[in-house]
Design a protein that fits this description.
Number of helices: 2
Order of helices and strands: EEHH
Distance between the termini: 41 Å
Largest sheet: 2 strands, antiparallel
Structural class: alpha+beta
Radius of gyration: 15 Å
Strand order of the largest sheet: 1-2
Shape: elongated
């Protein structure tokens, strides 16, 4: 499988509803960094209270 963004070999693959997408190491890291700074992740963390010690 090839990376969705470039022609390198995919190191990671994700599948949703039968659609599989691959990402090389570089593009995977870029996407993770983008997601880590997203408002959506912050809202999700607040919802599930990830800092809870129970």
């Amino acid at each position: 499988m090839r990376c969705h963004y470039c022609d390198r070999e995919a190191a990671y693959a994700a599948e949703n509803k039968g659609v599989k997408v691959g990402l090389c190491e570089s593009h995977f890291r870029e996407r993770i960094e983008e997601l880590a700074d997203s408002e959506e992740l912050a809202a999700l963390q607040e919802q599930i209270d990830v800092d809870r010690t129970e």
